[in-house]
Amino acid sequence: MVLFIEYPRCSTCQKAGKWLREHSVEYQDRHIVEDRPTEEELKTWIQTSGLPVKKFFNTSGKKYKELGLKDRLPSMSDGEQIALLATDGMLVKRPLLVGDGFVIPGFKEKEWTEKLGL
Question: What is the average pLDDT score of the chain?
Answer without folding.
Answer: 97
